[in-house]
Design a protein that fits this description.
This protein is an alpha/beta fold and 207 residues long. It has one domain. 47% of the residues lie in helices and 10% in strands. It contains 10 helices and 5 strands; from the N terminus they run ββααααααααβββαα. The protein has a 5-stranded mixed beta sheet, with helices on both faces. Strand 4 and strand 5 form a beta hairpin. Helix 1 runs antiparallel to helix 3, helix 1 crosses helix 7 and helix 4 packs antiparallel against helix 5.
Length: 207
């Protein structure tokens, strides 16, 4: 996660802060869908990944409950995306770090802070060694994305922030898939965030 902080001697408003995030639960879901060749049904599902993962071996696919995973994928995606769009609760984070909590209290707070995941519903059977390799490649590519994208579009970012935008969720998918997430979140693809014209159009959803 990267927080964009105000700096001196630039037009960035001193009190404006945006969080740019790519939550791991969303990465997991995108990898599982494509690596396992799932075809979940739904009218509002994201496009395919920019970096195509290695497909799971046919023998593993034959033994997996693919129809069950396909049916459950949209529900888990919606739950994870909803949580991803919320701004982190600093008070909740402080409570999780307290040392006087019982194990059950700590776990309950941690789950609330982390949000839903694929593992919660389906366990770890869908994960393989290919998942970690793909994730590492994706993280490296994201680090190469220019970090000052928002600074070059302040004429669109500032009005969006004034309209409530505080968090941008970026997914490493092809094409355009822009959505408002709750009151303060915006979902964009990497291709959108790295294209000034498309990113400007996305930010206009908050105006």
């Amino acid at each position: 996660m990267r927080a964009l902080l105000p700096r001196r001697r630039n037009p960035w408003p001193h009190d404006m802060m945006l969080t740019i995030d790519t939550p791991h639960p969303l990465l997991d879901l995108l990898w599982i869908r494509q690596a396992w060749g799932l075809r979940p049904r739904g009218g509002d599902l994201p496009p395919g990944l920019m970096v195509t993962p290695e497909p799971v071996e046919p023998a593993a696919r034959a033994a997996a409950p693919l129809s069950e995973w396909e049916a459950g994928w949209p529900e888990v995606w919606a739950a994870c995306l909803s949580h991803a769009g919320t701004q982190q609760d600093d008070e909740l984070f402080r409570r999780v770090r307290r040392t006087d909590l019982s194990a059950d209290e700590h776990r309950a707070l941690f789950l609330q802070l982390r949000g839903p995941t694929w593992r919660d519903k389906f366990g770890t059977a869908a994960y393989s060694g290919g998942h970690r390799a793909w994730e590492n490649t994706t993280i490296v590519q994201q680090r190469e994305t220019p970090r000052d994208v928002e600074r070059s579009l302040l004429d669109a970012v500032i009005p969006a922030w004034k309209a409530g935008l505080t968090k941008i969720v970026e997914i490493p998918c092809r094409g355009t898939f822009t959505r408002r997430i709750g009151s303060n979140g915006l979902l964009v693809t990497t291709e959108t965030r790295t294209n000034n014209q498309r990113y400007r159009q996305a930010l206009n959803l908050f105006q």
